[in-house]
Design a protein that fits this description.
Chain C: Belongs to the binding-protein-dependent transport system permease family. The complex is a heterotrimer of chains A (507), B (327) and C (274). In chain A, 31% of the residues lie in helices and 23% in strands. With 507 residues, chain A is of the alpha+beta class. In chain A, strands 1, 8, 9, 10, 11, 12, 13, 14, 15, 16 and 17 form an 11-stranded mixed β-sheet that branches. Chain A is globular. Chain B contains 12 helices and no strands. In chain B, 44% of the residues are buried. Classes of the chains: A alpha+beta (507), B mainly alpha (327), C mainly alpha (274).
Chain lengths: 507, 327, 274
């Protein structure tokens, strides 16, 4: 921060001197612009994709997930699932060091998970994702056993991200938690250099990285909140890669002479949840009619620049549990009107959509949805709600209107994550309840280590949800990056983490 | 006005008769300022605790949140303590400079010092630019009253007040960064980063300052003592610089004091457009995350600043024009 | 000088009558309220056909209709919040100036507190508590602005209280209410009208800022601020989405400022509103 202060001072003094154009980038440095500053680099303190995109370059987990979402060895060379899923044994990589020179070993793994599952982790949001781990036991310097409280089919995937990133015990003990929050140290391909809150974090290549040094010398992330400003930075050459690109900006970048679009299938799905209690939507015919009133492809073409696909359940094609056989309700306004009439819903009936304010794309989608509903005779209003209120008071308390936004982007790509949360009794996103059958199915697949059986059950869950029309599933959006032409080798992963080891920049 | 009790002017420095009213005036203003600050901080830290639960914000994207998770986080953040205890902590921190920790972002003090520096730099640059433009133009307009130039100045200053400032900012970025690629569109990468945000804020300041300079100059120029001065043979330049400008500066200083609060408010929007790492950007993030410690500190420090500026204005006022004293 | 004054008056009046007239008649001109969407005609460029003379927005809605209808919100917010602030400010100012004492204390201290809070941050915090909406924005603006009027009126009352005609009225035993509203208020009207005119202009700008920050109103109701915010992502590919509402704001505010300036010279020779 003193750095920023002194720079501001210099700027004040120099404000009247000659002006130069935007600064040229140093050789081999890539600058990324993203919307959000996670503001804290400790793996146990965050749930933000904005953290993942930066920190995937600083930390490693025991396992790593590649661009095809397959699990690969990370800091563990191999692993075995034992005792019917109650114990997992990891064989660790040897000779790896943290950026501060501290050795990586079994003690570091134990420390990481003791910390995550103990008091430090308890004050943050990550602990709850890993409570199926009972304890971690050091077998020898390069072997650890994870003892499970219950079998967890998704645990290996979870070990590849966020809270499960391995942290350096001595460094944290010597410098304290607060220092670690702002000065991260891991084993990853890039080392932390400096961090200016709200502005930027700078990293440099870790020449000793166990999979070989990255192609870049330096990696800078800048935090720029406004969509239009991030884009302007790209166009004026201030940054090389922009994340969270607004779909409305896609044509602009496609037309730009120094940049292009790179898109990849993503985890995020958008839908409208329907209120199944004490509302006109309690009648399943009404819910089906609402589904038939919406032309999903038209929404995708108009507001997603075509970068998305319609969905029939609350998951995309990459998700474990996706059923290609399941077809969504057709776009059929005639049939929708017939169903509404059958259900005794008079033309001009008023309904309201609650949705999260702040996402410019969904704001347009919501407005267009009211147009589709108007075409089948419904008078639908909009109620944009600020995130905090929406997630705090409206949804979990069951105070929604007839329709409310449900969008989710579980990075595990396992339908369990989304389905449990939206259909199981007592969950945050299921304020109005589903059915006993649904609860039983969801519990059953959680207990089962048999992945084939799980997939079958999850597809059944999707089928059941489709028949009951609990939601209007809308679309699965692609993740869109705007990339300067001088960037080479950028292949994004679908989980929005941004591991930039193979990327290079041309001069 | 009663002389202040307990504050005696130090013997031998100056005659007590002359100092007492000023001292008690200052003391009264300081007490008022203190009252205002207590009310403001109390209001702010109470109001922000009604905006929602930071624990829920922290876990908002988590799949399985139990009430125990929430309670554990609230406990960790110190939110289970009574409001007045939390408020007392906050005020104690403000007074001692130990600003404590944000809910999400580590220690507050370095955050604030960086953001405050950035905001003040932007505010003072805009102010300097606007004075450099508005004072000469205002003098010109006043001394060439009714001329084409005067009318042009007046229409331009009215037009300058009619822009939505964020719109102006976006337009500038479009022209100077995207199309011409002359200036960096955002953040702080060097002195050239200051230009567009300072111009955006400067346009409004300049327009208002211009009008104030022009009007007060006109008032003074047509007043009796100037007539007398002219009759005595004082040159036009001397009249303008010795008398008229002095009076204009009194009006300007007062205006700036009164408008300092809305200048800070206007900065919020402009900082957002230019991703300027200042207090506004900090506050907007804090509101979104329900980061009580940061938000209450930012608003309170801005309030302290505004109150201090107004206090200074009142005192400057007395210095610039000894006739205006003690209301 | 008089030439310029006439120019100010005529230009201001023409702007306000034209824009205000169109807005007032918007119900007749555009019975659909600018809401009809057509996704197949989205982002039509302006001046390319009679259907959509000023083009269409990202949802294929007619921009001309939305600009004209959208003026309702701007004028409504601007005028209602200014009126509310005038009424409250006048009453408090009269009481404070005439009776002094606790009223005066309350007013001046409240003014100090209100002056010390950056309005936009305060508005964002309050909206986070009570939720967004047109009514809340109006209330917030009234809360933020009534003090200006109260101080203005208080000042006028303080100087008028000593005036001969007030002293005379008091000696006739006229009730305070009659003195305040029958004698003092009419004499303080000029500055009040000027300040109100300028504040209507200011409030229109403020409403657009708040909407831009996402604190605004029902997205289905067209408003100038909302159109600017929604159009900002299209500024490079479809600038007309933002240019026309931006122009509407500018011209309206300019018109009000011109009129306010003209009024100032007519009604406030003493310069109380400077």
């Amino acid at each position: 921060m003193t750095d920023l202060k002194s720079r501001l001072l210099i700027a004040a003094l120099a404000a009247t001197t000659a002006l130069t154009a935007a600064p040229a980038l140093a050789e081999g440095t890539l600058t990324v612009a993203q919307r959000q500053d996670p503001a804290n680099w400790d793996p146990v303190d965050t749930f933000l994709v904005a953290w993942g995109s930066v920190a995937s370059n600083i930390y490693d987990g025991l396992v790593r997930r590649d661009e095809n979402l397959d699990l690969q060895p990370g800091l563990a060379e191999s692993w075995e699932v034992l005792d019917e899923g109650m114990r997992i044994r990891f064989k660790l990589r040897e000779g790896v060091q943290f950026h501060n020179g501290e050795p990586f070993n079994a003690e570091a793994v134990k420390y990481t998970f003791d910390r995550l599952l103990g008091e430090v982790g308890g004050a943050g949001p990550q602990q709850s994702n890993y409570t199926t781990i009972y304890r971690v036991e050091v077998v020898d310097a390069t072997t650890v056993d994870f003892h499970m409280a219950q079998p967890d089919p998704v645990i290996l995937t979870k070990l590849s991200g966020y809270g499960a990133m391995i942290v350096p015990p001595q460094y944290i003990e010597e410098n304290g938690q607060e220092h670690f929050d702002m000065n991260p140290v891991g084993t990853g391909p890039f080392k932390f250099v400096s961090y200016e809150q709200g502005a930027r974090i700078e990293l440099e290549a870790n020449a000793e990285y166990f999979e070989g040094a990255p192609e870049l010398h330096g990696l800078v992330f800048r935090f720029i909140r406004e969509d239009a400003t991030r884009l302007a930075e790209l166009q004026s050459g201030g940054v090389d890669l922009v994340t969270d690109v607004a779909f409305s900006a896609v044509p602009t970048i496609e037309a730009a002479d120094n940049a292009g679009i790179v898109a990849v299938a993503g985890p995020s799905i958008y839908s409208l949840a329907l209120k199944t209690k004490d509302a006109v939507t309690e009648d399943v015919r009404v819910r089906r009619a609402l589904n038939m009133a919406v032309d999903k492809q038209a929404l995708i073409d108009a507001f997603l620049a075509g970068r998305g696909s319609p969905i029939a359940s609350l998951q995309g094609e990459l998700s474990f549990g996706h059923d290609p056989e399941l077809e969504g309700y057709p776009f059929d306004p005639q049939q929708a009107m017939a169903l509404l009439e059958e259900a005794g819903v008079a033309p001009g009936t008023e309904m309201t959509i609650d949705y999260r304010a702040g996402n410019s794309t969904f704001n347009e989608v919501a407005q267009a949805l009211t147009g589709f509903f108007a075409a089948v005779g419904l008078n639908v209003g909009l109620n944009p709600v600020e995130d905090g209120v929406f997630l705090n008071e409206i949804v979990p308390q069951g105070r929604t209107n007839e329709m409310y936004q449900f969008s989710w982007g579980g990075w595990t790509f396992d339908f369990d994550n989304t389905a449990y949360l939206t259909y199981h009794e007592g969950e945050k996103w299921n304020p109005y309840g589903t059915s006993d059958e649904m609860n039983a199915l969801l519990d059953e697949q959680r207990q089962s280590p048999d992945q084939e059986l799980r997939e079958e059950i999850l597809q059944k869950v999707a089928q059941l949800a489709h028949e009951e029309a609990y939601h209007i599933p809308l679309y699965n959006e692609e993740t869109v990056y705007a990339v300067a032409d001088r960037v080479e080798g950028f292949v994004p992963a679908p989980d929005k983490r941004l591991r930039l080891t193979d990327v290079s920049v041309a001069e | 006005m009663q002389p202040a009790r307990g504050i005696a002017p130090r013997a031998g420095t100056s005659p007590p008769e002359a100092d007492l009213p000023i001292l008690s005036f200052i003391l009264k203003r300081v007490i008022q300022a203190g009252f205002v600050l207590v009310a403001v901080t109390l209001f702010v830290s109470f109001a922000i605790r009604l905006t929602g639960d930071p624990a829920v914000m922290m876990l908002r994207e988590s799949a399985n949140v139990t009430p125990e998770d929430l309670a554990r986080i609230r406990e960790g953040l110190g939110l289970n303590r009574p409001f007045l205890v939390q408020y007392g902590d906050f005020i104690g921190g403000l007074l001692t400079g130990e600003l404590g920790n944000s809910f999400f972002r580590g220690a507050i003090a370095p955050l604030i010092s960086g953001a405050l520096g950035a905001t003040l730099l932007l505010a003072l640059t805009s102010l300097a630019v606007s004075l450099l433009i508005s004072v000469p133009l205002g003098i010109y307009a006043a001394t060439h009253r009714g001329s084409f130039g005067d009318q042009l100045v007046r229409v331009l200053s009215l037009a300058g007040l009619s822009f939505p400032n964020f719109w102006l900012g976006i337009m500038l970025v479009l022209i100077f960064s995207v199309t011409l690629r002359w200036l960096p569109p955002s953040g702080f990468t060097g002195p050239q980063s200051l230009i567009m945000p300072a111009v955006t804020i400067g346009v409004i300041l300049t327009s208002t300052n211009l009008r104030i300079v022009r009007t007060t100059m006109l008032d003074v120029l047509s007043s009796q003592f100037i007539m007398v001065a002219r009759a005595k043979g004082l040159s036009q330049t001397a009249v303008i610089y010795k008398h008229a400008l002095r009076n204009s500066s009194i009006a300007l200083v007062t205006y700036l004091g009164l408008q300092f609060g809305s200048l800070m408010g206007g900065l919020v929007v402009v900082e957002l457009v230019f991703n300027w790492p200042g207090m506004g950007t900090l506050a907007i993030e804090a509101i979104a995350q329900r980061d009580y410690p940061i938000l209450q500190t930012v608003i309170s420090i801005l309030a302290v600043l505004i109150v201090a500026v107004n206090l200074l204005v009142d005192l400057t006022y007395m210095l610039l024009d000894p006739r205006i004293r003690l209301e | 000088m008089t030439g310029f004054k006439n120019f100010e008056f005529v230009a201001g009046l023409v702007l306000i009558v034209l824009i205000g007239g169109a807005v007032a008649l918007s119900g007749l001109l555009f019975p659909d309220g600018g809401r009809a969407m057509d996704l197949t005609a989205r982002l039509t460029a302006p001046f390319t056909g009679w259907n959509h003379p000023l083009g269409t927005d990202p949802l294929g809605r007619d921009i001309l209709a939305r600009v004209v209808v959208g003026g309702r919100v701007s004028f409504f917010v601007g005028i209602v919040s200014a009126l509310g602030a005038v009424v409250i400010g006048t009453v408090v100012g009269l009481l404070a100036g005439y009776y002094r004492g606790p009223w005066d204390m309350f007013l001046m201290r409240f003014a100090d507190i209100q002056l010390a809070l950056p309005f936009i941050l305060l508005a964002m915090t309050v909206i986070a508590i009570i939720g967004p909406g047109l009514d809340r924005i109006i209330v917030l603006m009234i809360v933020a602005q009534w003090v200006q009027y109260a101080r203005l009126i208080r000042g006028s009352v303080l100087s008028l209280r000593q005036a001969e005609f007030v002293q005379a009225a008091q000696s006739y035993g006229l009730p305070d209410r009659k003195i305040l509203f029958g004698h003092i208020l009419p004499n303080a009207m000029g500055p009040l009208v000027i300040l109100a005119t300028l504040n209507v202009a200011n409030n229109i700008l403020l409403e657009s800022s708040l909407t831009f920050l996402g604190l605004g109103i029902d997205p289905l109701v067209p408003s100038w601020g909302g159109m600017l915010a929604d159009g900002r992502n299209y500024i490079q590919t479809a600038p007309w989405v933002t240019i026309f509402p931006g122009l509407a704001i500018m011209l309206t505010v300019l018109g009000l400022n011109l009129l306010g300036d003209w009024l100032r010279d007519r009604l406030d020779p003493l310069g109380a509103t400077k």
